[in-house]
Amino acid sequence: MDSPPTIHATPGAGPRLPSGAGSDGVPGAGSDGVPGAGSAPQLEFAIEEAGELRHAAVPTLRFALRVASSGGARVRSIALNVQIRIAATRRHYDERAEGRLLELFGRPEQWGRSLRSLHWLNVPLQVGPFDGDTVVDLPVTCTYDLEVTAARYFHALEDGEVPLEFLFGGTVFYAGPGGALQVAPIGWDREAEFRLPVAVWRETMDRHFPGSAWMRLRRETFERLHAYRAREALPSWEDAVESLLRAAGEGDDLPSASEAGAVAGVGDGTD
Question: DSSP state, 149?
Fold first, then answer.
């Protein structure tokens, strides 16, 4: 019985298929047979739209990513790394947003040197084979943890758009001369811009956390709050926080979280 053909690897190139094999490893199939076959494809990226990824277990945005290939062989696959940044300097902020962004950028008079782009997250994405161009979903998981810089930025905005920058890197796999599988890096100079409506982010978060916001407490602080709530017989955590705010004169204009009316233990001097 004849031994199977051997696949050779050459430094700087991808694995080489058996002699005479085509792009699919079939003897005699030849190369892709299109102009530019064998040369590395030139890739361009664009974000066409954004929306909520429905039925996701956690809040997730979906960006429609168009990948276009020109001047080279057919793309076999792409192992893509996407870095997403918030271009905070590219939009206007009203007085309310300026107050909410104080922790991130300082006072507005300091913004000339403190307002800057923010790194949001890195997303890996696998793109399958295509000719010409293709559109794939880029899923981006969101968090409502306000200790996370990006979440604090989104939460500070009530309307308008969030200017985003997408930077693309990774590896493209394509068929080289004679059908040999070739590999080429994607430089980080490939990028795209998109303006995400704030309403899309808020609708996504509200579907999972309707009318809510989150914050993290040190365990010791939580235990003290827990003891206060139990001592005052308050029905919820919101009632406990509102009780403390009202006692400090900070919550006089806030509606009560309890539909029952007054919050127990507020201002009555009880321990």
Answer: H
Q: How far apart are CA 204 and CA 197, in angstroms?
A: 11
Are 83 and 122 within 8 A, CB to CB? Answer: yes
Cα 127 from Cα 134, distance rounded (Å):
9
Q: How far is CA 129 from CA 63, 79, 144, 153, in A?
A: 19, 11, 35, 37
What DSSP designation does 86 have? Answer: E
72 contacts: CB under 8 Å, gap ≥ 6: 36, 37, 39, 40, 41, 42, 174
What's the one-letter identity of residue 177? P
**With the C-alpha atoms ordered 123, 200, 143, 105, is the resulting torsion angle positive or negative?**
positive
**Distances from the Cα of 247 to the Cαs of 71, 254, 266, in angstroms?**
70, 13, 6
Q: Model-level pTM? A: 0.70
C-alpha 57/C-alpha 139 separation (Å) is: 12
CB atoms within 10 A of CB 215: 9
Contacts of 62 (CB under 8 A, 6+ apart): 50, 51, 52, 53, 137, 138, 139, 140
Q: Which pLDDT tens digit goes with each residue over 109-137?
A: 999 999 999 999 999 999 999 989 999 99
Residues 6+ apart with CB under 8 A from 195: 161, 162, 163, 164
Question: Which one, of 206, 238, 212, 213, lies nearest residue 225 by Cα?
Answer: 238
For 178-194, write each residue's pLDDT tens digit: 778 899 999 889 999 99
In DSSP terms, 194 is beta-bridged to 164
